[in-house]
Structure formats: C-alpha cells, structure tokens
Amino acid sequence: MLLSALLVLLAFYADSFATAKDDDPIVPAVRVVRLQVDYPEAKVQDVQRIHKWNSLMRNSVIASLRFINKHWTICGSGPNGERPANDCGKAQITGEIVSDNHYRINVTFISERDPIKNVKVDSTSTVYAVSQIGLKGGIFQYTNALKALGKPSPKLEFDEAYFCYKGAVLVDGDKCRKEFRRLRDEPIVEQKCADGWQRSADGSRCEQCPLGSFKSKDDAVCMLCPTGMTTLNKGTKLLSECRIKTCYPGTFLNLTTTQCSPCDYGLYMDEYDGRICKLCPVSTTTYQTGSNTITQCLSTNQCKSGAHTCHWLAACMDLPDDDHKPRCDSEFSNSTSFLM
C-alpha cells in the first residue's frame, strides 16, 4: 500500500497535471515505485548507536538514487517535462528493523515510465533493471553510512502503482480520465489531517500516527522516530517526543517508569516496542523472566513435558502448586525436588 507515503509527493507534482489541456479527457497517471533493500546480516544494535542514523541513512539513499539518476532518468519529471536537480530528494525513505540481524530500507518515489532513457547514449531500460544492476554493483553500499549495514540481499524487492488526482478515474491501468472538473481544481489532498494524524491507506479518513512515529504541521505523513527510539503514545506530534528507548523482545515498556522491564513468568514478548507482554497458552508457562518467543512457554506439567529433575528410577507426580514443580516418588531425588 503506497498511498499513505505518497500524498506529499503527489501534492508536489500537482502542477504537472494542471498543464494538460482542459479539453483533453485523458492524461497520464502518476507512476510511483517502491524499492525494498534488505540487509540480512546487519548488526542492528551497532547501527542504533550511530548518531542521527535516520538522517544519515536517508541522505545516503538519496545520494545513491541521484547517482543512478545521473546516468538513467529514473526520477519522475516535473511540470512540462522539466527535471529539477532535487527530484530524487523528494523520495520517502524509511528504515525498518525486521529482526536483530535484519534491517530493511524502503524507498518510495515518483518515477519515470518505462522504458527509461540513458542520459549519454541512445539506450533504454527499466527502473527495476537499472536499480537491480545498481544493487549488484554496490550502489546501496555507496556511502560509509550504508556500509554499516553490511552486504544487502542480491535481489531487490520492487512494487509499482498508478494514481490519479481527484476529479479523474484510473483507466487502462496507467491513465487518468478526467471528469467534468479540471484536475487542478481538486488535488488528491482533499483535507489536511491534524498534527499527529495522517490519511489512511485508502485515503478515506484520518488516523493516528502509530507508536514510534510522529507528524508535525510541516509533515504530510507520519515520520518514523530515530532508530532505537519510540513514542509513549499514538498520535504523537513532535520529533522531541521520540524520547522513549525502544524495548527489545522479551521486555515491555513499563508505563510507570518509562523503562524496559523483562516479561514475568508465564509471559513473553516476541516484538520490538512491546507494551503488554503476551500470556502463554493454557497449561503452559515460562520458567524464566524475559522470554522472547512462544516456544519458551512450556507445559506446567513437568512430568508430561520431561522437564522434571526426578531420578530415572523415581515416579514423577505432578502437583497443583504455583511453581509447577513435581513430586518424585522414590528414594532418589535432587535438591530441586522433594520426597513424598
């Protein structure tokens, strides 16, 4: 779903649609592409310690896009076919922690239509093809900041979509047919959402910014907090409110202390930025605090699960006690079990 990340891009290019003649019923739709670059061997904890990482990462990706755009016209044209030098700078770029060793960069921008042209020679290609070639050539390790993520996956994830402004409908997959109103009269941004809110994916309503993001009056969409930081509540309005440390799996944010605390016995948390630890399934529990996966929820019947410490000659008997320890019915036992 690309819409929520593209309102600002479409608003920036609104004039390019207004240049179409009013008596022309068909105009080109806006082509938007999204690239995903995965770094499966990233040392996420080290990356989170880099000062102003989000800004460094975004500037590095912009530099990579501009390098490609210098040779192949991938970034979308402005009004009347002009291509301002900062076109690629309008890309929406976010970082995503997939796991402890997996980082993902999402890049969304208004793109030229295929086939795209080479700047210097009479040659054509596609946005995906030149981006994939750039990936294999190390373009997304172009700066020292991106090198901190390690080697990216060899295959680029690619998605595209076409959009029309209000007053037109999408036809033939990539064209916009105008209705009785001119496109310039009603841009796609119908109503500005309040600070801390953004348009839903389908554009029908405003919804609160999720945890770990914010939206000030100058932002068109919710922006991610700096890596390793989050917000106390949804609907945050200012970057300065990204002052809570993101809790790792196995811990949750204690709202009283605003510190990360380990999940208690019988609970686990398998996500980043958890607020309430998850309860183990019925008849299972964890035997340590700070559990970070449901697989650590073991049967409360240690005799049945084999987790007991009774001697192999002893009969294990399950007891309905709080610590779930069994009784070993034999002359053999150890310090963690007791005799009948």
UniProtKB/TrEMBL annotation:
The UniProt record lists the keyword Signal: yes
Keyword tags: Signal
GO cellular component terms, A-Z: cell surface; extracellular space
Signal peptide start-end: 1-18
InterPro entries named among the record's database cross-references: Growth_fac_rcpt_cys_sf, SCUB_EGF-like_domain, Tyr-kin_ephrin_A/B_rcpt-like
Single GO biological process annotation from the record: signal transduction
Tyrosine-protein kinase ephrin type A/B receptor-like domain span: 204-242, 250-297
Protein name, UniProt field: Ephrin_rec_like domain-containing protein
Species name: Nippostrongylus brasiliensis
